[in-house]
Amino acid sequence: MTQAGTSAPTLALVGATGAVGSVMIDILNERSAWPWGEVRLIASPRSAGKRIRVRGEELTVQALAPEVFDGVAVAMFDVPDEVSAHWAPIAAARGAIVVDNSGAFRMDPDVPLVVAEVNRDQIAEPPRGIIANPNCTTLSMMAALGALHGAFTLRELVVASYQAASGAGQSGVDQLYAELAAVAGKQVGVRGGDVREALAAAGLSVSDSLFGAPLVLNVIPAAGSYKQDGWFSEELKVRNESRKILGIPDLKVSATCVRVPVITTHSLAVHAVFAEPVTVAAAHEILSAQPSIVLVDDPAQGRYPMPADTVGADPTYVGRVRQALDFPNTLDFFVCGDNLRKGAALNTYEIAEALAG
Amino acid sequence: MTQAGTSAPTLALVGATGAVGSVMIDILNERSAWPWGEVRLIASPRSAGKRIRVRGEELTVQALAPEVFDGVAVAMFDVPDEVSAHWAPIAAARGAIVVDNSGAFRMDPDVPLVVAEVNRDQIAEPPRGIIANPNCTTLSMMAALGALHGAFTLRELVVASYQAASGAGQSGVDQLYAELAAVAGKQVGVRGGDVREALAAAGLSVSDSLFGAPLVLNVIPAAGSYKQDGWFSEELKVRNESRKILGIPDLKVSATCVRVPVITTHSLAVHAVFAEPVTVAAAHEILSAQPSIVLVDDPAQGRYPMPADTVGADPTYVGRVRQALDFPNTLDFFVCGDNLRKGAALNTYEIAEALAG
């Protein structure tokens, strides 16, 4: 996107002080290739003035305002939907290409929804100057499904998720840590050891918490906000975003999204039906060939993807690949991805980097 | 099974001192109807001599031996597979009807596999004198699926489980409590806070643990033992036992069984395809009419089944019932059942009680 002969492009990060924003700072500091000139860190006026070190230089966080986007080539947004909805078009009008990690624009037909490994070709000349990054749950399985779809043609998906507390932001993480401390050393989660009572005794409110229920020693079959006909927003995102990213408008999808007591890394149990015959050997070969996928699939030796082995890593981990016993052309598998990295900051940055290049 | 005019039948409990056995003692103590005369508590020689109070009377645990079954009408077995395989036929040869909670006989064509609400009619005159109780994961969804199958004719099942530590016995519970204590108050499960390192620092070995990996702040996509072609025993049990209990030999099933950091209660995300058209309203009506099911399904108000609200309770809890958006005749739902009660001890006892007449 930069013109030959001009200086290196300017990169802006909006939401630099949030949970995903701080992972983004890590990524900026670790990246070996570096196509950027100036970096601007932007946040709400409350966080303006903070100083954050990026690639050896101390930068001052600037308050969000129209003029901070002047001269910016690419602006990455990691802010709530309503903030993106308002500010991304302003940034685009000032000439920046926005890579937005909120849900505000994902289903806009004039906004490409991009996973770097799957449909990177769609980043060129976005009509509104905005490119959207998918929901972290959808994103965790997209590299694997994109590769398998290319070989076997995907028709149906049944997905159950095991989603981490950090998917709900830093307050979700804080809540789970507080709940862990409140139950540790106590005989709870058994008859006569009620989890809700143990948390209340420790002064922790769960009805007012982000999750509306205990998360420690529990699983909560609800993620996002309630929509209609029994569905939660996260489940509809898995369906609608998968269809758009993979370019399969009639893909059949049923998802059940469940929050589990894990800090970081979303996991998914995936049942994928294809048009063509499949084998585990062929799937292994396809998945192994993807640079962003690590195949961990030796279940007899206890080797399969797990959050404990995924946190902080860039790839998505795929394993438990097996041919369904009763369904033709069908693979069942399990996938884990760090929801803060590949699920959010990393994919956003990979798109930004592709725009620079 | 008792003859008119004889005294009340004798009930034996083999494995009286184990994790499920102690839940069974609770059930014996709480039951209002009481058809039994003598109760015999039986365990390994190591536990013989222990005294346990049953319905106001202190009973001495007897060591497992052929003669302890003389005069026993019904013997409930809650012991490992190999113990059942050896001793259940001995008890049956001495005249007892055995209700066995192990995996030793479940797929034997001469042994009925019974869920009290679904196929209680099969308990009469079992050919080998043995009736099997299903695996706790399968059992958690059987009351709901049996009722829905009766109305809509089940064809396909895709299931993902969220299984509790206690499904692996008391040592699984102890392991998870120890892991919880080891990580409480620490910033783990995040980048730079490795769960494995935190457990190792607390002197906890996970490679040697029952789960072979951390369970706290993690999910483990493996339950039971590894079989073949990528499948674990628990996943094959869900398939094979569901087919046998529901009497649908060609039922299509794919299951992914995952251990989660919950002490008690197995949860399942179920995608069920039927032959007949379905509606949520009809499903609600059918499920509400089952005495052993509690429908908890007001997601807009945060009401859905969760382990935290299920522990220690007899019913299975069903919610998140919705019509699949893209699959005809299909319901997605979420179910929770206390794996130690309905999933094991309670169903065994319900069969025993039905045998008592």
Walk me through this protein's architecture.
Two copies of one chain form a homodimer. With 357 residues, the first copy, chain A, is of the alpha/beta class. Helices cover 30% and strands 20% of the residues of chain A. Chain A has nine helices and 14 strands. In chain A, strands 5-2-1-6-7-8 form a six-stranded parallel sheet, with helices on both faces. Chain A is globular. The model of chain A is unreliable at 1-5 (pLDDT under 50). At the A-B interface, strand 9, helix 5, strand 10, strand 11 and strand 13 of A face strand 9, helix 5, strand 10, strand 11 and strand 13 of B.
What is this structure, in a nutshell?
Two copies of one chain form a homodimer. Chain A has helices spanning 19-30, 81-93, 116-119, 136-152, 170-183, 195-201, 233-246, 280-288, 341-356; strands at residues 11-14, 39-43, 51-54, 57-60, 62-63, 74-77, 97-100, 130-132, 154-162, 252-256, 266-274, 293-295, 316-323, 330-337. By secondary structure, the first copy, chain A, is α/β, with parallel strands linked by helices.
Write the layout of secondary structure elements.
The structure is a homodimer of 357-residue chains.
Chain A (H helix, E strand, L loop, with lengths): L10 E4 L4 H12 L8 E5 L7 E4 L2 E4 L1 E2 L10 E4 L3 H13 L3 E4 L15 H4 L10 E3 L3 H17 L1 E9 L7 H14 L11 H7 L31 H14 L5 E5 L9 E9 L5 H9 L4 E3 L20 E8 L6 E8 L3 H16 L1
Parallel strand pairs in A: 1-2, 1-6, 2-5, 6-7, 7-8, 9-10, 12-13
Antiparallel strand pairs in A: 3-4, 9-11, 11-14, 13-14
